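Notes from hallway chat w/ T.B., transcribed later so I don't forget. T.B. wanted the structure written out for a chain they're using in a teaching module, and asked if we could keep both sequence and structure tokens in one place. Agreed to drop them here.
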Amino acid sequence: MPGLAVVGAQWGDEGKGKIVDYLAAQADVVVRYAGGNNAGHTVVVGGETVKLHLIPSGILYPDVTCVIGNGAVIDPEVLVQELDTLQARGFRTAKLFISDRAHLLMPYHRDQDRLEEEARGAHRLGTTGRGVGPAYADKVAREGIRCSDLMDEAWLRQRLEAVVPRKSMLLQKLYGHPGVTVDEMMDYCLRFAPRLVPLLVDSGALVQDALAQGRRVLFEGAQGTLLDIDHGTYPYVTASSPSAAGVYSGVGVGPGAVTNVLGVTKAYTTRVGQGPFPTELTDATGDWLRERGGEYGTTTGRPRRCGWLDAVQLRYAVRVNGITQLALTKLDVLTGLDKICIAVAYELDGRRIDHWPALLSELSKVRPVYETLPGWSEPIGEVRSWEELPPAARGFIRRIEELAQVPVVCVSVGPDRDHTLVNGVISW
């Protein structure tokens, strides 16, 4: 059963969309298994940029079946707009399907997200304000509205009558919001039901059948390991499970569905929002990385915090996800630096540690122990083979492999699909 999971090995924004788009040429099915439209994947093909938020990155291949799994939360407005935009640009979307068990992101979730973040003040989490966190919270609280609810109008009203008055009261009493009514939310759902209901499937059955037939399935993660609700820098995390374990619950398949895990990491590190960042650079080098790398959020446009590659973090991601191979992105951004640093360990209260602390008060005060490698000045954007890379670039890649104990099988040297170098074979 050839199933390959593509996961972010950092705080998201690693370039997973580009890697999934590249691999989708070999896939039969691409499944998005977690997250909402707080994630953005940018794909560049032939110089044309396509920005995706909910739809899997395999959508640019007309023969690939794309599935949004039950582990994702669906903002119907965003999804319909994304579909319309793709269709207007000539992309075919007839093979897109949505899990009937996926939860809907409702208008009151967006309001709640914004108002809660404002109320946190100095303790804000840095959410995108898209309503994703409250939608997942309602899912766990058993107060969510699922896509399948759209299939039965009487049942949908019953669900809304059970949920909306309490949500409205919360918004009114805590935040002075005018509130929402059952009728308003009913009208909202019925407005999008004709577009969504025809796309609903049992995602687990669809994917399991494909695997049983020997078809190649690509599981697309959103965000990254350090944003995982269990394994990330809690509470500065997302509300879902973007790690590889999220595939099983987020699609509805068993552990045997994933045969290999490809971890995606930048050649440096970025994150958005609040929270500790051991290798963050707040100097001119950090600014240089941001501008050279175009480090601004696909979804929000927020500037990303930038720093050196962190091997302690990377080793943690390898362990948590069972990563069997790595894709290294944005190697070209480092061109022109005289030296490149990698954090190989931390110093904490005068002692050296090589693990990723769970306690954020410790993680906030660790000092990176850096190893310095030579940089390179040769442009690599037009390089099309591993052997053409400058010796210093190849040495940097080898050192990452040694520190992570995982082979780097894929390197990105530019934004376009063609700017991708493969060393050997990417295992499915």
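Follow-up for T.B.: The chain has a mean pLDDT of 95. Might be a good example for the class.
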